[in-house]
Structure formats: structure tokens, C-alpha cells
Amino acid sequence: METGSNNSLPTQFPVSHKSFSLNIKGNKTDIVICKYDDSFMVMATQIGCMGTILHARKEESVSTDPTFHVAVIFGKRDEPFLVACARQLIEHTSSYGSTRPLVLSLGLKDHSPVINLPSVF
Amino acid sequence: MASEELEENLSELQIGENGEKKPVENDVSEGAVKVSCFTEDLQDVTLHFQIVNFSKQIYAWIGCNSAKLGHLYAAATTRPNNNVSVTSLLGSTSDNTGSSIARRIVLKTGLNVVIACNIPKDSPMLEATAERKLVERLASLGYFRPKEKHSN
């Protein structure tokens, strides 16, 4: 649905996204991935809301290897495996050559690292 | 495996910087999460809107002439009186362009909201227009609380 002149060519929405559902260990997991100009947004939820939101970015310098900065910006700050998950994902996107920061929201029923987090990503 | 399917989806999204954007339908509803995208062309600006409808929360992105994420705000009703509280998650705390939008969306829907907004600061008219368009779409999606009827 777009408003504007009828003579103009239909333009693509500037943000591409993908939305799908997975069954992880019996829990229905809704995942939405969005690509903005300056960042990625990945949302994975089993509880009907965004849950904990993390921000991860890559910091590059000339002489040393790149480092990654990951922080919880909303929600549970005492679950280290959520941070590990974000760290793994930013490293994964970085391996494809992307320097965009990542906003990751995880609304999981079980924060056990053995059971859930490796299955999600 | 679920992780393989996710990796396949991520690679389809072409994370590399040279990836081309794939054409995307304006409304995509796969699974339980519906993603609504639409664009409003105003006289001198183009507003883009993206709404992700979770069952207990709303995520909305408002783009002004660009597809940058912008500042991120979270708003929800909080105890003790169900007053609405807003907090800035990402972005400068001195620029609160999207926070008032987030607050009013919570007042009207009663749901928790996360708003991402890249409207430039000191643009109250643009902010008001963006909020109006977003509210219209949320109303069409059935998110507003029914008004209480007062018996006379």
C-alpha cells in the first residue's frame, strides 16, 4: 500500500525483511530479520514479545584484530548466554564482510545454553 | 536442523555489503508474526513505516527519507498506577523525537511498544504526521482499546 502519484513506478520498500517460524525443542519460535541502512535487526521470540534486547557492534582498528562490543540494552542482564549469542551472531555477520551493528532481541522460554541457544542460531 | 534453515535465510538476505535488495511485498504474514510495511509520500519527505505485530508487543520503525534504524525507545505501562514510562534504548538521550510517539501508542493500545525512529529533531509537524499515520494503521489492525461508553 503506497500513496503518491499514480504515474510513478512502484518503489520497493527500503527495508528488506524476512519473517518465518521454527520449532526449536518443541517451542514455536518466531523470527524476524530486518536489514536497515546502518544496522541489522534480528528478533527471535517464543513468548509473544521481544524479550531481552541486545546491541552488538564491531570495532575495527588498523593494527589489531577487530573486536566486538556487545551490551544488553533492555531486559535480562544476568544471562551471559544471551550476550554470547549476540556475540556469535555479530561475528557471523562480520565474517560475511558486514560492518553493520546488530540489534538482537531474544524472547526465549528457556535460557539454558545447552538446550536452546545453539539451536536458535 | 533449525540452525541450518536460519543460516540459509540469513544468506538469502545477502548480508554482504554488495548484496542487492530483493523485492519485498508490503505485507508479509508467515507464521504468527505479521510484518506490515507501507510508505507515505508527503510534500517534501517520504515516511516509511514498518510494524511487527507480536502477540503481546508492538515493534514499529519509522523512517524519514532513509532506511536507517534511528533511535530506539521502549514504552510500557508501569506500576503503581499504570502510568506510561518511556526509556531510550539506543541513540542520543538529548533527542527524544520518537519517545512521545511511543508513549502515546502505549496510551492508545495498552501494549508494550518498541519504537525505532529516525525523524530529525525539532520537527514537531513531521513527528505529528508520522504518529497520525502510524496510529491509523494500528487502528486498522485492530490494536486500539474500545472506548468505554458512558451511560447517561
Helix fraction of chain A, binned, reads 10-25%
Name the structural class of chain A: alpha+beta
Low-confidence stretches of chain B: 14-30, 148-152
Structural class of chain B: alpha+beta
Provide a count of the helices of chain B: 3
Helix content of chain B: 25-40%
Radius of gyration of chain A: 17 Å
Tell me about the biggest sheet of chain A? 6 strands, mixed
- Sheet-strand content of chain A, in percent, reads 35-45%
Would you tell me the overall average pLDDT of chain A? 84
The quaternary state of the protein chains shown equals heterodimer
What Rg of chain B do the Cα atoms give? Answer: 17 Å
Shape of chain A: globular
Shape of chain B: globular
Keywords (chain B): Proteasome
Organism (chain B): Rhynchospora pubera
Protein name (chain B): Proteasome assembly chaperone 4
InterPro entries (chain B): PAC4 (IPR032157)
3D architecture notes:
The complex is a heterodimer of chains A (121) and B (152). With 121 residues, chain A is α+β, with helices and mostly antiparallel strands. Chain A has helices at residues 80-95, 117-120; strands at 16-24, 27-35, 40-45, 52-59, 67-74, 102-107. Chain A has a 6-stranded mixed sheet with strand order 1-2-3-6-4-5, with helices on one face. In chain A, strand 4 and strand 5 form a beta hairpin. The longest helix of chain A is centred in the C-terminal third of the chain and has 16 residues, at 80-95. Chain A starts with 15 loop residues before the first strand and ends with a helix. Chain B has a 7-stranded mixed sheet, with helices on one face. In chain B, a hairpin with a 4-residue loop joins strand 2 (33-41) and strand 3 (46-53). Chain B has 3 helices and 7 strands. Chain B is globular, with a radius of gyration of 17 Å. Residues 14-30 and 148-152 of chain B have low confidence and may be disordered. In chain B, 26% of the residues lie in helices and 34% in strands. Chain B is α+β, with helices and mostly antiparallel strands.
